[in-house]
Amino acid sequence: xxxxxxxxxxxxxxxxxxxxxxxxxxxxxxxxxxxxxxxxxxxxxxxxxxxxxxxxxxxxxxxxxxxxxxxxxxxxxxxxxxxxxxxxxxxxxxxxxxxxxxxxxxxxxxxxxxxxxxxxxxxxxxxxxxxxxxxxxxxxxxxxxxxxxxxxxxxxxxxxxxxxxxxxxxxxxxxxxxxxxxxxxxxxxxxxxxxxxxxxxxxxxxxxxxxxxxxxxxxxxxxxxxxxxxxxxxxxxxxxxxxxxxxxxxxxxxxxxxxxxxxxxxxxxxxxxxxxxxxxxxxxxxxxxxxxxxxxxxxxxxxxxxxxxxxxxxxxxxxxxxxxxxxxxxxxxxxxxxxxxxxxxxxxxxxxxxxxxxxxxxxxxxxxxxxxxx
Length: 374
Fold this sequence. Notes:
By secondary structure, the chain is mostly helical. It has 19 helices and four strands. Helix content is about 70%, strand content about 5%. Strands 1-4 form a two-stranded antiparallel sheet.
């Protein structure tokens, strides 16, 4: 994971190198930053926006020290493979042995301002100077989560997870790391793993608000685990048992569309089609355009004899998923029940061409062929 982490991180942070120019001091020139004198004959990074007029005049002896200091932070944070990276790290440390604290503070400020990529740059620079800095890892993780949302990049959550794993690796009693790991695992549907992280977090000191979030999360984990057990029962044919489990969750979680979906599936399997239809329609209001729910609505409408409405749902579903053999076959069933055998045959044939191994499609095609041949 470390190599992937560094590679993706570098891709994100390389953009900041465009803000930098590298200069070399002339003979007999030097610049002093605090107690450290910068040597000649080495490329020094300087922030362009702080240097525009100086560069035009070629007056390097007037370079603002802050422009070099900021440039050093950028190159140290952006890419550890850059030439002279280790020297730049040593230089920053020689300027101030506690320089990493100032860089960390700037990273926190950028994160508060919503400049998450730049915050990550500064947290990474902090780690270059102070390799096991838990605050840098933790806040880098939070910034990766925020950047993931800001740029719609779910792949960045894996980098956040890596950062939190580093925090608890450095300090196994760091409750905040377990807290965030629990939420990442929960959102990935790893409920037992999330529960384990949160229970571990509760062993250690943490703010009350964080503890409250974990308690709520543990309740949701238990309900999610019950949900999984319930729908597995339904799929295994233990429909009544599964429905009992799922229905017990409905009052507290009527916003879980997948919970409502499987309750609908259970009622449909019990041939209680009107009850099933009511649940599937609720799902449609929560997750518009969910193909499988549209298919289930159609099945229920066929069962209660509302072929016109079933046709409307299958038409819309096929617009969204035109090569879905199950939808095509079920639309053929609508035509079959309406007495349009030729229309039904066309749909069954098309479905068969897409999924010739599907036994249900083959049965319907054989049935309509018998009727149309006679």
